[in-house]
Amino acid sequence: KWATTATSGSPQSADDDGDEAKAPSVVTYARFARACEADARCKGLSLASYLISPVQRVPRYRLLLEELLKATDEAHPDRADLEKAVALVIDAARENNDKMAAIQSTSERYESLAKLQHLIFDPTGRFTLLDAPARRLLLGPTEFKKLCRKGPKTFTFWLFSDKLVYAQRLPAGLATASSYQFQLNREMRLDDVAVADTAFGTLSQRSTRRAAHLLKSGAAPVVPRERSQCFQLLSSSKSFVVEAPTLRIATEWRDALATASSSSAGSSSSSS
After folding, report:
1. Which residue, among 201, 84, 209, has the nearest Cα to 151 in the 3D structure?
2. Model's pTM, two decimal places?
3. Bigger pLDDT: 141 or 221?
4. Would you say residue 140 has pLDDT above 50?
5. Whole-number Å distance between alpha carbons of 44 and 144
6. For a Cys staple, 152 with which of 13, 53, 88, 145, CB 3.0–4.6 Å?
7. Is 119 exposed, middle or buried (0-12, 13-18, 19+ CB in 10 A)?
8. Is 158 exposed, middle or buried (0-12, 13-18, 19+ CB in 10 A)?
9. Residue 25, C-beta contacts closer than 8 angstroms, at least 6 positions apart
10. Distance separating alpha carbons of residues 255 and 261, to the nearest angstrom
């Protein structure tokens, strides 16, 4: 019925109010779908219901074959074929479940990234989180103090599987007036990012001038990482020191950055 209605035209429906504001193709399909669902031959089921039917039948076939197998004697000539059929339908059901779980996971991840992107304002309009299907959010949002020229400033960081993003939280008034909560400061490709220890445990332990001197000279001994909330982020475009809120968060981010950077660099090398 769905196919014959589609080829014979798009019947009018009594419930078309508001459709004129949509694109013509959407209007055509909406009318067609409603007409099909209203047809007695479709038994009130939607197209989605019919599309999912083959998937839902697999578990039923499994139950049927397993019951048939139980009722079949070991010596019956059909026993071996039944056992093969049960094994095949079990494999088919497992594959269906795995694929559906993967689709659900991808959909949820994409939706999560889209929501996050809508919170971050980029003055250039080029920022996107939806250009890499495999991208995953690993850590964040986490607030770090970043060592800047005029002293430490607080930024919010997100670590993804292929890049690091940090942004500054917008003032309450601006955030309330728009859907944005942050303004993008920078995004850094992980295949160009390295993590290094630094010479102080917290930014407050050193003056800005002293901290800058230590970074440039490299003469001072580094603080053991288990006692430091700070670490350096090094890249070809930008390098700086950040301070995590706690030692635990510093360790978590330092390890995750090192692992993700190594993985991203390996992926880039193999693809090239």
Report:
1. 209
2. 0.64
3. 141
4. yes
5. 56
6. 145
7. middle
8. buried
9. none
10. 10
Q: How would residue 151 be classed by pLDDT, with cut points 50, 70 and 90?
A: confident
Identity (one letter) of the amino acid at 176?
A: T
> What does each C-alpha distance from 178 to 114, 166, 183 come to in angstroms?
16, 19, 12
What is the tens place of the pLDDT at every residue in 63-107?
999 999 999 999 999 999 999 999 999 999 999 888 888 888 888
Burial class (CB in 10 A: 0-12, 13-18, 19+), 254: buried
Q: Convert the chain into a string of H (helix), E (strand) and C (coil).
A: CHHHHHHHCCCCCCCCCCHHHCCHHHHHHHHHHHHHHHCHHHCCCCHHHHHHHHHHHHHHHHHHHHHHHHCCCCCCCCHHHHHHHHHHHHHHHHHHHHHHHHHHHHHHHHHHHHHHHCCEECCCCCCCCCCCCCCCEEEEEEEEEEEECCEEEEEEEEEECCEEEEEEECCHHHHHHCCCCEEEEEEEEHHHCEEECCCCCCHHHCCHHHHHHHHHHCCCCCCCHHHCCEEEEECCCCCEEEECCCHHHHHHHHHHHHHHHHHHHHHHHHHC
Residue 242 identity: V
Residue type, 266: G
Q: Which residues fall within 8 angstroms of residue 258, CB to CB, at 6 or more apart?
A: 195
Q: Residue for token digits 């269906």?
A: 96
Neighbours of 149 (CB within 10 A): 7
Tokens standing for 154? 């607080």
N- to C-terminal Cα distance for the chain? 50
β-strand pairing of 182-189 with 240-243: unpaired
